[in-house]
Amino acid sequence: MFLALREFRHAKMRYALITLVIAMVASLVFILSALANGLAAGSSEAVEAIHADRFAVATGSEYSLDRSRISPETAQAIVAANGVSDAQPFTTVVGSVHKLDETELIGVSVIGVTPDTFLEPGVVSGESLRDRPDGIVIDQSLANRGVKIGDTLIFEPGGIGLAVVGITDGHQYRLAPTLFVSLDEIANLQPDLDGNVSAVAIRGENLDTLPDHVDGIQMASARDIVEHLPGYTEQNMTLTLIQLFLVVIAALVIAAFFFILTLQKMQELGVMKALGATTWVLARALMIQSLILAAIGILIGIVVGDSLWYAAEGVVPYKVQWQQMLTYSALLLLVAAVGTLLSLIRIARVDPLDAINRAN
Amino acid sequence: MMTPILSLNQVRRDYGDGAARITALHNATFEVYAGELIALVGPSGSGKSTLLSIAGALLQPSSGEVRLAGDTIGNLDNAARTRLRLERIGFIFQASNLISFLTGREQVQWIGKLLGLPDDEANQRGDRLLEELGMTRRANHYPQEMSGGERQRIAIARALMNEPELILADEPTASLDGARGRQVVELLATEVHSRNTAGILVTHDERLIDVCDRVLRIADGQVIEI
Fold first, then answer.
1. Chain B environment of A281 (Cβ under 8 Å)
2. Rounded percentage of chain A residues whose pLDDT exceeds 70
3. How near does any CA of chain B get to the CA of A267, in Å?
4. What global pTM score does this model have?
5. Could you tell me if B88 lies within 8 Å of chain A, comparing CB atoms?
6. Dihedral angle at the C-alpha atoms of B200, B206, B212, B216, nearest 10 degrees?
7. Is A1 in the B-facing interface, judged by CB distances under 8 Å?
8. Alpha-carbon distance B7 to nearest alpha carbon in chain A (angstroms)
9. Spatial CA neighbour of B2 closest among B52, B36, B27
10. Helix (H) or strand (E) holding A339
């Protein structure tokens, strides 16, 4: 610590600048992962909130709830099949709503469920569909846009109006707010369903053999459905790739910084070795410096990433996950250590004789 | 008879192999006793640096025997030589040999740290040395804020910090004017005498040799005592 800290003190500006660069890279890593989390949650949380073991979707739908159509007979066959303890059909529809007295359209996903089943969302305020099967339960994300309990929302196309009776939370789907209505109401909103539903959420055992007994369906997990949402996988891959590049950049920045600094200090390091400093003492000082700078940079990154969470609330899909933040912090610390290895090799090769032979 | 602090017996150092082999040092034999400061003079390229490096356990001889206070040091491994330099030898190099990011006091304290001395003992010993060398007032300055003479005083204090048996000074006056150079060497001689350590001063400035107790001249790798 003696050498490491005194060198910081002597060249504050230099070390402050490199810390700033690390802080910015760390901030970007944290912001991007929070953004990726936010986008992922906004795309999929409604599906993941359904605690089903499996979903039955129509064959050929490629796990898309929008393309899947299951007839009432098939749904009945699933309910009656072996191993199924509970099966609830539901329907998803894409549409828009506007408030009765306004014309601004809001894109939404409408999910039709049977009230008083495991599909029915819990409410954080107002009444549930169980009590008001003729109403709408809206997601908090729609409430954040000014829709209140008691408002009437008009569905487009169709022009049918329904009253908001309750608010649920954590139910976005495809980055749009979700509205929950009863299966009966969704049949009114979307007459061309002809009594079909999108899919059946199933609880039970040995469900993967179900398609052998019921024609025209395939089994999907929540993950399958989410990963087949248009663009979902690609979006996550892109963001993950950018984050990995940032981690590599952090490693290179730290490596280059300490390497150049070490090259500049070769003669001084020679003197120190001649005076009796071991490679270990000098290497430890460098490693401590690198880890301290990285730790400070990461802490700043955490503060930045976290404060944006409050700033971004309701504006940008943004979700901080502490465990993930810790993982990325550990990764950045690790690359800081790895980045100094090149410099450590140089330090090991410094010959104390250079203290005397510097003229040559 | 008194054991010499440094004794070289038929020490030879070659660089390179076969036809390209250059002998930098031919069968050097001499002894340095406690309490004496030896001047080692000679033109550049004469083997002064090689001799100093071998005496300071920075370089191993190709053949011959090197002893520090009776202990053979010519064949030690790297780690043992590093340890030996830290504990038993004091080095003073040319002008720019202080560590740029440590203040005068910290240069000295750092040796105490390396030795594993308790902090207050290291601080006390360091401050005493700085006072002895008249550097107390300048102790909190960085090397680049000091004059050449002040830097070398700090370097002397640093070299004395481990209470060495042998002090090796490699052209410590190289970047100083005559008067200041002489002051530094006189200070060094005073310390060597008062502490009863052995010292070797490498210099090409013949005007300084009267400060020293004996003079060794080296030319083409041959050491002659005058």
1. 114
2. 99
3. 9
4. 0.83
5. no
6. 50
7. no
8. 20
9. B36
10. helix A322-339
Are the C-beta atoms of residues B105 and B139 closer than 8 Å to each other? Answer: yes
Exposed / middle / buried, residue A100 (Cβ in 10 Å: 0-12, 13-18, 19+): exposed
- For B20, list phi and psi in degrees, rounded to 5: -85, 5
- The ipTM is 0.93
Query: How many angstroms separate the CA atoms of B93 and B174, rounded?
Result: 9
Identify the bridge partners of residue B67 per DSSP, sorted by sequence position.
Answer: B7, B72
pLDDT band at B96 (very low <50, low <70, confident <90, very high): low
Rounded to whole angstroms, how far apart are CA atoms A197 and A231? 24
Strand partners, B168: B91, B200
Q: For residue B93, give the DSSP letter.
A: -
CA distances from A253 to A14, A20, A213, B120, B181 (A): 13, 11, 59, 39, 45
Closest of A296, A255, A287 to residue A20, by C-alpha? A296
**Rounded to 5°, angle at Cα A355 from A352 and A358:** 125
Which residues make Cβ contacts (< 8 Å) with residue B4, sequence separation at least 6?
Answer: B31, B32, B33, B67, B198
The predicted-structure confidence for B187-199, as pLDDT tens digits, reads as follows: 999 999 999 999 9
Question: Is there a contact between B197 and B189 (Cβ–Cβ < 8 Å)?
Answer: no
C-alpha–C-alpha distance, residues A166 and A21, integer Å: 47
